[in-house]
Amino acid sequence: MPDPVEFKAGDRIKCQIVEQGIDIDNFNDKQLPTDVHIVTYSFADGEKIFDAVRAYTMVDIFDAYHDKLRGKGTVHSIKAGFGRIRPNLYGKIKTDE
């Protein structure tokens, strides 16, 4: 599996990366909040990579990944509906801002 996208502290993204390069078939989301999204993307080789990400809006997630993958890869989908814990009980979304 190829390496996931690497976000640095200076990238100023508005989302929190929970886990990168997950195995979607064995992903355990029971201890995560309901605002977790699964981002599916790939690089030029075509192998899909899955990341678990928190953000207030899907647009924030798309902007971060689209900017990072520009010219190197493609964002295929961003899906919601994962996690089991209410977001206010889990804590605020930690961004680098």
List the helices and strands and how they pair.
Layout lengths: L14 E5 L16 E8 L4 E8 L2 H12 L3 E10 L4 H4 L7
Antiparallel strand pairs: 1-3, 2-3, 2-4
Describe, in plain words, how this protein is organized in 3D.
With 97 residues, the chain is α+β, with helices and mostly antiparallel strands. The protein has a domain of 62 residues. It is 16% helix and 32% strand. It contains two helices and four strands; from the N terminus they run βββαβα. A four-stranded antiparallel beta sheet has the order 1-3-2-4, with helices on one face. The radius of gyration is 13 Å and the shape is globular.
Percent of sequence in beta strands = 25-35%
Q: Determine the oligomeric state from the structure.
A: single chain
> Which structural class fits the helix and strand makeup?
alpha+beta
The H/E string reads EEEHEH
Looking at the structure, what is the overall shape?
globular
User: How would you state the average pLDDT, rounded?
Assistant: 90
Helical element count? 2
Cα radius of gyration in angstroms = 13 Å
Q: Profile the largest sheet.
A: 4 strands, antiparallel
Please state how the strands of the largest beta sheet are arranged side by side.
Answer: 1-3-2-4
**How many β-strand runs?**
4
Helix content: 10-25%
Q: Which segments are poorly predicted (pLDDT under 50) over 5 or more consecutive residues?
A: none
Distance between the termini: 30 Å
